[in-house]
């Protein structure tokens, strides 16, 4: 079973569980889901009616916490930590993993390698030294399969080649559609340019064929002309003396 299938199973499990619970009973679901080592997307669970009903209630802080894990980062959590439930160690780890995914979202539609400076990562993740940062990136991110990349100690950066996607933030869909539309326009223009070059190459090929045919025809004409001249030069001709001998022979 691949990662996508496992992820879908985890989501289905929590959606069903949240659908059968209400109020304060959902707090445990939120904690369990945000602590799960293989769950990194929460929008489908957040869309469950029972979960949305937490809005404006005494348990609304768990809905806010769920939204933080869906769209927020570790540094964003710290700014509002006093208004949210305290995180368990597994939740802290999860939110820091999600933070790396958010940092890696920059220019995600393009094929460029995303470069994350160590200084930025250490600041966003509350990591004090490079060794601790690299251990986190290797053991908790790359081994977890949520990112792939290369650690560059000389340049002090993490080159991200792949990063799993996070839940779409409110208002983010429009910008994503625009980015994809721009990409599609660029692709269309590239295809037109390629087709023009193909047409040019075809035209040049036809011109080359025509030019070769003309050269072959001229070469054939030259051969025929030379052949006629050679025949004329090689044919015996009678001199005046020869004509006299021929006439005397005829008289005799």
- Whole-Å distance between the termini? 118 Å
Determine the strand fraction and express it as a percent band.
5-15%
Radius of gyration: 40 Å
The shape is elongated
Task: Profile the largest sheet.
Answer: 3 strands, antiparallel
Low-confidence stretches: none
Helix/strand-derived category reads mainly alpha
Strand order of the largest sheet: 1-3-2
Helical stretch tally: 11
Number of strands: 3
Could you walk me through the main structural features you see in this protein, from its secondary elements to its overall organization?
With 252 residues, this protein is mostly helical. The protein is 65% helix and 7% strand. Helix 2 runs parallel beside helix 5. The longest helix is centred in the C-terminal third of the chain and has 63 residues.
Can you tag this structure with a few keywords?
elongated; 3 strands
Itemize the secondary structure elements and their pairings:
Elements: H1 3-19, H2 26-35, H3 43-46, H4 49-52, H5 60-71, H6 74-80, H7 89-103, E1 114-117, H8 118-125, H9 130-142, E2 147-152, E3 157-163, H10 172-234, H11 240-251
Antiparallel strand pairs: 1-3, 2-3
